[in-house]
Amino acid sequence: MPDRRRRNPCVVLPLLAAACAAPPAPLPAPTPATQDERMAWWREARFGLFVHWGLYALPAGKWRGEDHHGEWIRDTARIPRDEYTQLQARWNPTAFDADAWARSAAAAGMKYVVLTSKHHDGFCLFDSAHTDWDVGGTPHGRDIVAELAAACARHGLRFGTYHSIMDWHHPDYLPRRPWEAAARPTASADFDRYERHLHAQVEELVRRVRPAVMWFDGEWEPTWTHARGVRLFELCRRLAPAMLVNNRVDVHRDGMAGFSTSAEAVGDFATPEQEVPPDGLPGVDWESCMTMNAHWGWNAADTRWKSADELLRHLIDIASKGGNFLLNVGPRADGTFPPEAEDRLRHIGEWMAGHGEAIHGTTASPFDALAFGRCTVRAGEPVSRLYLHVFTPPPAGELVLPGLASRVLRAFRLGAADAALPVRRVGADVHVRLPTATGGPLPPVVAVDVDGPPVVHRTPSIAAESDVFVDALLVTVAAPGAGLDVHYTLDGSDPTAASPRAGGPIALHGSCTVKAAGFHRGSLVTGTAERRFTQVAPRPPAKVLARGHGLRLARHTVDWQRIPDDRQGLVAEHDAIAAAVALPDGIGERTALCFRGFLDVPADDLYRFALASDDGSRLWLGGELVVDNDGPHGTVERRGAIALGRGLHPLELWWWNRTGEATLSLQWARPGEPFAPVPGAALRH
Ligand code: H79
C-alpha cells in the first residue's frame, strides 16, 4: 500500500467512523504543506457527483430526426454556430434548485460535486466578465455555478468545476471542427489569445467560487501542448494551492484509461473515463468518471440506464482498487434531475447510510481477486478493519481471505455488530462464516477487525512470454510482496519449504506444470500458483517455391462491424503487391484490405505477433487464427503466438475500417527479443 496515503483519523477508534461522515467537512489548509495534505479530503471522499449541464439539455439529444446526441450535439449534429447560439434565448430552467441537487448528492453518500462551468460548446454556466456566451445572457440570468457552489457548502459537499479547454465558440480557439472550417475562417484567430482568455476565466472561477477541484477536459487537440498544460496547472497552483487539478490539464493522458507514467506530466489525479482499470492505478490517485445511462448531457431518448445495483458495485469496485467514483447526472432543461437518476442516487444512498464507512476514507484491497466480491480497508493502529463486500454468496457459506496473516480480533456484519461471525484459520487463509439470510440492503458487508495493519501474503506470480515454446522457455516466479521465500516445483507436486527456492529465471526444456508458493520461516503462508507450459513442434512449412517479395493486396468496399467468416464472395476493387503490412495511401472509409501470401521464417521457433489496428483485423498463418483483433474500435493492439518451422507459411491478414481514423501495423518477436515490424524481406507471394 502506498505509504503516502495519510492515515485516516477514524482508524484509531473505528467506532468514531460515523462521526467522521458528518458534514460539513473542514476546508483544506489554504496552502497545503504536502501533496498528501492536499489530497486528504479527496481520498477520504471516494464518491462524487458529476453534473453535465448546458444549452444541450434543451434539445435533449434530438436534432432533425436523430435522437442520439448529447453534450456534443453542436458537433455531432453539425449545428452552425449561429444556429446553436439561438438556444441561449431559450435557457430558462425555472425548476432549478441548487439545494435539491446538493441534497440528492449528499443523501447518496457523495462528498463532492463537479459541475460543467463550460463544456466544449463554450457556453458558461456562470456569469463571466469575459464573454456574453453565458447564463448572464439568458432569460433565466441566474449564475448556476455560484448557486450550486453555495448549496454544496450548505450540504457539506465540496464543489468543483469542469472547464473545457476545447471551445467550439470562441473565435480564437483552434482548430475548427473539420465540418465548419469553411463557415468559420481562422485568419484572425490567435490561440495564444485564447489561452489568455482561458486563464482569465479560470482565475474568475477561482476568485468567485474557490473550487476544490478544477477538472479540465478537451485537451487532446494539437493546439494544446505540454507547455500550455504546465502554464495552466501552475496558474491553478498559484491562485489556489489547495485546489486539485485533474491530469487532463496536460497532454499526457494515455487514451481513455486516463493514465500516463510520464515523469513530466502535471496534474493531481488520473481520470479513467467510462471504465475501471482492472488493477486500479497503483501509486497514483485516480478517479473513474461514468455516466448512469449512455450520455453525459441529458438525452430524453436514452433508455440504457445502468441499474442502481450495477452503479453501486462500480463504486465498491473502484474503492477496492483505491480510486474515486465520479458518477454523472445530466439534468433536464427545466433544471431537475431525471427521475431515473434520482432513483439511482436514492438507492445508492440507502446502502451508503449503513455502509458508508466501508467506502469513505478506505484504501485498496490488499488481496488478489476475491471469490466472493471486493475488499476495502481502513488500515491503522492498533486495529485495522477489512470490509468484505459480498457480491456472490460463498458456496460453502464461508468467505475465504487468502493469505491473511494478521490475527483476527472479531468479525461481524455491518449493521449487526452484536452478532460475532465465526472465524477460523485454514492453512494460510482465514475463513469467515456468513449467515445465509443477512437482511439489510445488498450487497452485505462483513467487517473484520485485525490486529495492527493488515498483513496479507499474496500468491506468487508465474511469468513467461508465452505458455508454449519450441526449444526452451524462461519462467520467472516471484512474490508480489517482500519478505517471503518462494519455492517451486516442476513435476506437478505441491511446493514445500524443501522444494527449490525461486531466484533468477527458470529454464524449461520440456512440457511441465510450474507450481509456486510463498513461505515464511518454513511455513506455507500463501496460496499455490500453477501454470502449465507446453513444448510444441513447429508447424511444418508449406511445400511451395518462393515467388516475389511482398504480399498480394486486395481492396474491398464493405459495411462491416466484424470480419465475416465467409469472405469468398467478396469482389476486390484493386489488386496490387504490398511491400509491407501497412495501409497504402488514400484508404477511404468503409474499406477492407486483404493481405495474402507467405511468411518466410528464418528458423524453427516460437513466433509472437502483435497486430495493432483501427478498426478490426485478424491474422491467419497456415490457416490458423493467430491474432484476433476484430471489432469496431480505435487503435488496439492484440497479440498471439505460433510455433513455425523454417520456411514459408501461408499468411492471410484482413483489416477493415468503418469511419474515422485508420491504422494498421504488424510486429513480431522471437523468444527473448523485443517486438519489431515484420520486414518486407519476410513477405512473399
Ligand atoms: O464531458 C464528457 C465528454 O463529453 C467528454 N469527457 C466526458 C467527461 C468527452 N469528450 N470526448 N470524449 C469524451 C471522447 C473523446 C475521445 C477521444 Fe481521445 C479524444 C478520442 C481521441 C481523442 C482521449 C484522448 C481518448 C483518446 C485520446
CATH domain class name of the largest domain: Alpha Beta
- The helix fraction, in percent, is 10-25%
How many distinct beta strands? 34
Enumerate the strands of the largest sheet in spatial order, edge to edge or round the barrel. Answer: 5-4-3-2-1-7-6
- Termini separation comes to 55 Å
Main beta-sheet annotation: 7 strands, parallel
Bound molecule kinds, no repeats: ligand H79
Describe, in plain words, how this protein is organized in 3D.
This protein is α+β, with helices and mostly antiparallel strands. The protein folds into four domains: 9-18 and 36-358, Glycosidases (TIM Barrel); 373-451, Golgi alpha-mannosidase II (Immunoglobulin-like), CATH 2.60.40.1180; 461-535, Immunoglobulin-like, CATH 2.60.40; 551-684, Toxin - Anthrax Protective Antigen,domain 1 (Toxin - Anthrax Protective Antigen, domain 1, Alpha-Beta Complex), CATH 3.90.182. It is built from ten helices and 34 strands. α6 (144-154) links the parallel β2 and β3. α5 packs across α10 (339-355), α7 packs parallel to α8 (226-239) and α9 (308-320) packs across α10 (339-355). It is globular and about 80 Å long.
